[in-house]
């Protein structure tokens, strides 16, 4: 009984210490943020229900392919990567898969006013303009048509890695998977004002929960950053995080499987040791 | 081992020494495995840890997690071991050498932990190393030269990493093993203390035991009686330890340290590992005068060594039989918990005053209250 009392006191003191330096201290040091918003409530809804894909196809042909490629539709990029990087600062994305990863409302708003949708108005102004112009001349119907077209050509399912490549690889490296940014680092630095970090270890330095808030709205955790709000759907974002886990914390499952086995082993050893100790001490007490 | 005798009147807190030995062994063994793949080079260190060891080498992650978790847990147990000794008065009357060699171990373990923390070349490793080595630069007269000598460069750089690597994997472990030997050897003459602080005639008790009066004898042999209980405690501890290793390692591996060191980008908050926080808070506590903080910081590094001098009362009893000392003991525990927690919080607003008051209380407990208690006890005794 006495030893249990001592153990209880130990647990209380160490528990207080742990609570103070871990959950409590971190709750004070890290800014509190609202949870991720996959409905993009700050953007006024555009009626996308009556979009006509065939009309959207024409609009894309007239307006988008001057810079963007659509490889699945056999439309190549007008410039090679090096030239595009020098001209724009970042290589424009291929649009074949874009609607598989972006929220449709976000996509429509992005076409209409990219810096506003990406939450980058503080970064890209007249003296340092954003490479994609705002298509304010498009009516809501035009936007609905373009989105309908992009949705019609987008595959329903992409692998985790394909989602990552579509959403992040224009700027970010994953060195540990030998995946490198499409845009040249020098061009990117000029365009962003700083280097885009390698994401190999991001799963361990930020963790799943923070990544979920950060990717959904980078400004919340890193105010003033040049990283855009990408506008990923909940599913696409989960796939990105899964990919980061596969490359940065590939032994995650092994750790969880092995942990329980080692603990069980020592639990059995504890029992055996307890019976042995009882046997030995019976002679002296 | 069967010829070394231990009092029977002890509880599981006396098993901490064997847990420490187990953890130290785990550190050495896991360290040897890590050493096979680690590269002590500022360009390669980060990837050798985070890619080669954590992902490419079979079970490399397990060795690294064991190493990091054991490094943190060893301080939990050292603090328990230390406070058990304070509670039961085991630093007194012939046991001073045990106490002093133990405190030496604590200091060398601190240096060992600090030098090891830098090796993964992560953001917090780098900046913590910068801040702590920077303290040496503030020492009068020799400071700037000393700082250069320690870092091997104007800033924390490859030269610093290489020498910290040598300290961590060779010099300090050898010194630790030697002091462990000294710590054990100094136990042979005054023997282990017991729950009541009772002075035992070990030879007479040993004779009783050997004659078969095992139940009457107040001592037990180290093997198998003492160790049978220790092994039980170690096994139970290991269940908890591997829970931490596999499911809760982040308490020992700060997520920010998975970011590569960047000498151009300071982290928002710089703080040491939890076991240094209380003395770090004393350093910051005197916020209005950095030099004063540094002086007091220097004092608290050695303050526990002085315990046998500051408490020279002849009474050797557990704290619950020395009322004033018992109050002192729990005030010290609470004060150190407060210092530790505020050592991590940003030093702004009222936090600074909490730090100052807690630091002053800490000094008063050692230099004013403890000598007064022992003086009163001497008169009473």
Automatic annotation (TrEMBL), chain A:
SUPFAM superfamilies, per the entry: Cytochrome c
InterPro entries (UniProt xref): Cyt_c-like_dom, Cyt_c-like_dom_sf, Cyt_c1, Cytochrome_c550/c551-like, Ubol_Cyt_c_Rdtase_Cyt_c_su_prd
Transmembrane segments: 6-25, 258-276
Pfam families cross-referenced by the UniProt entry: Cytochrom_C (PF00034), Cytochrom_C1 (PF02167)
Compartments where found: Membrane
Key words of the record: Electron transport, Heme, Iron, Membrane, Metal-binding, Transmembrane, Transmembrane helix, Transport
Main subcellular location of this protein, as a coarse class: membrane
Domain Cytochrome c: 51-154, 155-248
Protein name, per record: Ubiquinol cytochrome c oxidoreductase, cytochrome c1 FbcH
Organism encoding this protein: Helicobacter gastrofelis
Upper classification of the organism: Bacteria, Pseudomonadati, Campylobacterota, Epsilonproteobacteria, Campylobacterales
């Amino acid at each position: 009984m006495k030893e249990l009392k001592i153990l209880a006191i130990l647990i209380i003191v160490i528990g207080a210490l742990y609570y103070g330096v871990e959950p409590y201290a971190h709750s004070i040091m890290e800014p509190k943020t609202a949870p991720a918003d996959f409905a993009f409530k700050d953007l006024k809804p555009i009626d996308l229900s009556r979009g006509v894909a065939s009309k959207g196809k024409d609009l894309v042909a007239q307006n988008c392919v001057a810079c963007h490629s659509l490889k699945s539709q056999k439309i190549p990029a007008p410039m090679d990567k090096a030239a595009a990087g020098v001209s724009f600062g970042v290589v424009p994305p291929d649009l074949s898969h874009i609607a598989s990863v972006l929220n449709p409302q976000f996509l429509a708003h992005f076409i209409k006013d990219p810096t506003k949708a990406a939450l980058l108005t503080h970064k890209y102004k007249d003296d340092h303009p954003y490479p994609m112009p705002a298509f304010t001349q498009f009516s809501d119907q035009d936007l609905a048509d373009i989105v309908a077209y992009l949705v019609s050509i987008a595959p329903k399912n992409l692998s985790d890695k394909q989602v990552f490549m579509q959403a992040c690889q224009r700027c970010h490296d994953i060195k540990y998977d030998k995946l490198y940014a499409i845009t040249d680092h020098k061009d990117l630095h000029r365009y962003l004002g700083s280097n885009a970090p390698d994401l190999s270890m991001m799963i361990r330095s930020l963790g799943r929960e923070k990544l979920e808030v950060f990717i959904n709205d980078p400004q919340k955790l890193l105010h003033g950053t040049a990283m855009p709000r990408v506008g990923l759907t909940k599913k696409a974002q989960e796939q990105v995080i899964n990919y980061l886990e596969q490359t940065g914390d590939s032994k995650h499952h092994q750790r969880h499987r092995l942990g329980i086995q080692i603990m069980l082993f020592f639990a059995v050893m504890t029992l055996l040791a307890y019976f042995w100790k009882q046997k030995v001490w019976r002679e002296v007490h | 081992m069967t010829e070394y005798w231990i009092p029977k009147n002890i509880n599981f807190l006396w098993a901490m020494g064997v847990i420490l030995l187990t953890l130290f062994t785990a550190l050495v063994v896991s360290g040897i495995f890590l050493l096979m793949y680690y590269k002590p080079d500022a360009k390669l260190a980060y990837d050798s840890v985070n890619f080669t060891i954590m992902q490419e080498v079979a079970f490399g992650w397990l060795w690294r997690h064991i190493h990091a978790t054991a490094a943190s847990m060893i301080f939990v147990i050292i603090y328990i071991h230390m406070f058990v000794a304070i509670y039961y008065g085991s630093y007194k009357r012939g046991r001073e050498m045990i106490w002093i060699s133990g405190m030496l171990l604590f200091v060398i373990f601190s240096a060992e932990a600090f030098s090891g923390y830098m090796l993964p070349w992560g953001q917090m490793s780098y900046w913590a190393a910068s801040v702590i080595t920077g303290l040496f630069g503030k020492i009068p007269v020799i400071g700037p030269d000393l700082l250069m000598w320690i870092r091997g460069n104007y800033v924390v750089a490859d030269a610093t990493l290489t020498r910290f690597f040598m300290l961590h994997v060779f010099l300090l472990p050898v010194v630790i093993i030697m002091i462990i030997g000294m710590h054990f050897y100094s136990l042979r003459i005054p023997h282990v203390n017991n729950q009541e602080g009772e002075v035992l005639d070990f030879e007479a008790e040993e004779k009783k035991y050997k004659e078969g009066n095992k139940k009457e004898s107040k001592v037990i042999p180290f093997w198998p009686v003492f160790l049978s209980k220790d092994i039980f405690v170690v096994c139970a501890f290991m269940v908890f330890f591997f829970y931490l290793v596999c499911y809760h390692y982040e308490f020992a591996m700060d997520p920010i340290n998975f970011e590569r060191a960047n000498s151009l980008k300071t982290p928002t908050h710089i703080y040491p590992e939890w076991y240094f926080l209380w003395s770090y808070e004393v350093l910051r506590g005197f916020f209005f005068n950095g030099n004063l903080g540094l002086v007091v910081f220097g004092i608290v590094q050695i303050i526990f060594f002085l315990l046998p001098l500051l408490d020279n009362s002849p009474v050797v009893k557990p704290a619950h039989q020395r009322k004033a000392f018992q109050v002192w003991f729990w005030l010290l525990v609470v004060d150190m918990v407060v210092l530790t927690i505020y050592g991590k919080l940003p030093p702004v607003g009222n936090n600074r005053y909490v730090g100052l008051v807690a630091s002053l209380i800490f000094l008063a407990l050692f230099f004013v209250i403890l000598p007064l208690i022992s003086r009163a006890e001497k008169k009473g005794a």
